[in-house]
User: Fold Aspartate aminotransferase from Iris pallida.
Amino acid sequence: ISRFEGVTMAPPDPILGVSEAFRADTNDMKLNLGVGAYRTEELQPYVLNVVKKAENLMLEKGDNKEYLPIEGLAAFNKVTAELLLGADNAVIRQGRIATVQGLSGTGSLRLAAAFIQRYFPDAKVLISSPTWGNHKNIFNDARVPWSEYRYYDPRTVGLDFDGMVADIKAAPDGSFILLHGCAHNPTGIDPTPEQWEKIADVIQEKNHIPFFDVAYQGFASGSLDEDASSVRLFVARGMELLVAQSYSKNLGLYAERIGAINVVCSSSDAATRVKSQLKRIARPMYSNPPVHGARIVANVVGDATLFNEWKEEMELMAGRIKTVRQRLFDNLSQKDKSGKDWSFVLKQIGMFSYTGLNKSQSDNMTNKWHIYMTKDGRISLAGLSLAKCEYLAEAIIDSFH
Ligand code: PLP
Assistant:
């Protein structure tokens, strides 16, 4: 008899579990649109050329494997804040930003959640409905209370802007409002610049603290600056805020676990204190972060030639997704005789499309068509090729009717 008899079986992860089921399927037509990872037109994983170049440089230099400081690689922390806010941003010049290297987006969010739990024990976090599934896990495990604000309107397959604003208004003053900087996951629906201004108005009115999750900078529009415009708009208003960053998607560094948590403060003194506490939380959890991904980012962003090459490669990746999105829309519109309006597919942005398929329809996609996706109706267009668009369109139409 095991001492672990009391340990029950955990349910499979709703996103990563999809890949496990996909691997077990032997059908030739199978398609994995579950996980948000970029694939080539041949549906192969892609290592960016700039990443290979940066790694070669690192090898030539013979960088050592000494421990990093708790807050991570200084050169990385510098460039990651600059990439987010723009190198000439006053916040950086005035030393009002606390940046700590994190274990990619997830680890950075988790660090911030622990910080909130410690210093704002009475505050709650508002997250969008729906949101990336792991957000709830992160705040649950950090014992930070959360509730949802309306975001998605199933009637329009668009943004429920009035509901969103009303719910942010109704939240207790001084709440943390979690916002997706761009390419909202899972819906692919972002507020317009005008809507962002109104969201900022309400958040300021209510003395809330914005908490941005930026996992797709550059991947939504193809432009790093444009995709950071939501965050920069809030920063330009002089607001204090948190930003978690990830390089999983835009540099394809999924397994390197490289990202950062940034806290923009109203004084450099506050930033220094906040940073010291973030380090204090990190030390007993994982001591210090891994160096490899941090060096890659520092080399790519810190070198003008590599930086420009990165931008070109990112445009290519974002461009491929846009082409696939268009092809899927064309196939859906041509093949569907029901008169359904599919234009929402084109309005969405980023890696994902939220199809509006419900759970049993999503089950039909998998059971009958061998198309693997999350049960909320989200498909990753980054895992789709032009060649497979027709097949996917047929499956979606069949599953709806
Ligand atoms: N936040 C959002 C909205 C995401 O979609 C993801 C990845 O799917 C992440 C954060 C974090 O990913 P990672 O921990 O790989 O950086």
